[in-house]
Each structure stands twice: as structure tokens, then as C-alpha cells.
Amino acid sequence: MTGQWIQVEAKDGDSFSGYLALPKNGKGPGIVLCQEIFGVNAYIQSVADHYAEEGYVVLAPDLFWRIEPGIQLGYTEKDFGRAFDLFGQFDTDKGMEDITECVKALRNRSEVIGKVGALGFCLGGRLAYLAAARSGVDCAVAYYGVTIDDYLVEAKDISIPIALHFAEDDQYAPPETVAKIQGALKEHENTDIHVYPGVDHGFSRTGSSHFHRTTADLAHQRSISLFRKSMGPHYDFSDLWDKHCEYEFGTRDVDATMATMVSEPYVNHIPTMTGGVGQIDLKRFYQHHFIPKTPKDTMLIPVSRTVGEGILVDEMVFCFTHDIEIDWMLPGIQPTGKRVEIPLVAIVKFRGDKLHNEHIYWDQASVLVQIGLLDPAGLPIAGIEATHKLLDAQLPSNQLMGKWTESGNG
After folding, report:
1. Choice among 62, 98, 138, 170 that is catalytic
2. CATH hierarchy code of domain 4-231
3. How confident is the model at residue 43, as a pLDDT?
């Protein structure tokens, strides 16, 4: 963990501890992170560190301090029993007083620039929802918040952007409960309620038996989008991606390429499953199997680019002469000397001002056709014609559909 523990003054004059995580540049908007029923444990601290990496000053207060200060539970059967006992003793109104004091504390810190939001999971999801009504935050995100339906009368006091994430199979927030929440907030134009199919309570908690990575990633993307739109920080992701590509294909500088990425990045070239996870493996991949194994005449022809909050989708034509063995695209295939031009799509996600991951897609069948290893005769695949069609929308469509002519005869 990279944060530090600080003291926050309570409304009644006492004080309690909180885990504070700062972004790399030391400043940013603030987030009060509301814990699960397991305390400010290693998982909650990792969430704080994660959002700090996104550019936020994050404070995760110990909300059980009146019952058992400093409690940090794991997820054994015994821990669950103790957690539910603490949950039963927890005073929501007192907890909300503490969260309000944390909001004030963040606003008074020199590291916090601009606005303050709330984020919470489970019990903390309920508290993040209530923070939107009571604590003067500028936005709020709640994951699988429990018993929010007991506080729907406070929905009228919410005027800020909020996002609520629910699991379809959550016994603690079942579909009928979510429906009540949706009904109460349907007139609130700044509310996004997401229900994720086939997942359960805790789908975002790493290490949980209910953890579901793709759902967690999607929910995080939506959460970051709300936070960035509501309070920043804002980055030029297009420029960051251009620099990354220049270091890969222009200057061919491994260290400069890695410097554009977070400390634990990953890259996946989907058709060939090449790339790497983590700093060590990915640097090894770039150093030995990507940068020196990409043809010198490689050219990227831009087609379209879509930039969102923390994500970029780049559509291009990837052109090269197959004059070396290309480990990452054509592993084990000796050079053919053939010219290849293929549509390629890069989906790039960022954390803060660094690249976090890349998913790269292309049509491997088209590559194999163009280098002469796959005969397209009788198969619904295309070679360079697919690229020509991408670049010129007026070229004929449906050329691989033998029945296309028949359907035009009435």
C-alpha cells in the first residue's frame, strides 16, 4: 500500500483514523471512500491506491471506530461472522456525521483541488448514496449498496450526479429492491443505475469468490466516467496514445514506451494472445518480441478515433512488408516478403495520465491470405480487399454473399 494513516476530527470533538492515498503528482479532486463491513482492510486500501492512480486524493475513514477502532477483517467464515456483528452495531447516522467531517477535511487539505465525491461498497454503497443527500459531496458512486431502499425518502435531497451499481443475483439487494430504488430515482436526471447480469454481491472485490473481472472493469469504467465528468481531472488521452505509438513505431524506444504506462500494465493482441502482464513481462515483450520484431516500413493510416473518459478506441490500417519474423503477429512464420495492409483496432484504457491496458484486434485470416498461407477460395474471408473497402465506402458490399444477387430479384 502506498498511502498513509491520518487523523480526522469527529463532530463531537474526538478523532478517528483514515487511510489517505495521494496521486503521483500530489494533488487532485477528492474522494471519500466508504468501507465494506470488513473495515478499512487491505482490499479497501488497494481501492484507495487505485483511485489515487487515477488522479484522486482518496480518504477511506475507519467508520467502525466507535465499536472497534482499526478493525481490518479478511473473508474467512469467522471474519464474516464478526463483520455482520459490527454491521449490526453500526449507527448509520453517526457514520454519516463522520463522512461529512471527512468531506470537510478533504476540502481543507492543500492536496485537494476542486471538488469532492463519495464512493462506497456494500455498507459503504449505502453510505455513498446517503452522502449524496446529506454530506455536500459533488457526486457519488455506490456499489451493491445494502438497504438503500430504507432511505428512499432522502432521494428528494439528491441533486448531484450519482451512479448505482447492482448485481442481478445479489441476495442483499434483490431485483425487487433495485426496482424500488429505480422507481424512486426515475425522475432524477443525473442518476445512472446499472444492473449487471449473472453476477453476485461483491463482484468488484478482488479475491472474492464472486469477483467477476469483466463486470468489475465495466463498472469501474462507468464510475471513472462519472467522477471525471463531475470533477475531473481531465487528461489528453489522444496525445498520450500518440506519444506511446511514436515510441513504439517511430523512435523504437523501449524505456520511453514503458514510461507512458502504469506500474503494472498489460497488453493483449487478441488474435495471437501475445503481449504481457506486469512491468517485467511487458518490458521483456517490447524489448525482444515487439519493437525489434516489427518491420521497419510499418505505417499506421488513421481511420477514426473515439475518446471517452479513460478510454480511447483507435481504428487504423496497419501496413507493413513481411520481411522479418513478426513474433507478436505471425509467430513462427518465416518472412515471405509480401505486402500486408489490414484494418486494426486498438482499445486503450488509462489510469490517470498513463496507459493501463491495450486490447488490439485485427483479422488474422486476412493477414494469412495476404502472405499466401491461406487460400480464400470457397471461404467467407477476404485479403487486402477488406482494407480497400474500409478506406472506400463506395466499393461494392456483400461480395462474399453468393445469395446477394438472388435477393435482388424480388
Report:
1. 170
2. 3.40.50.1820
3. 96
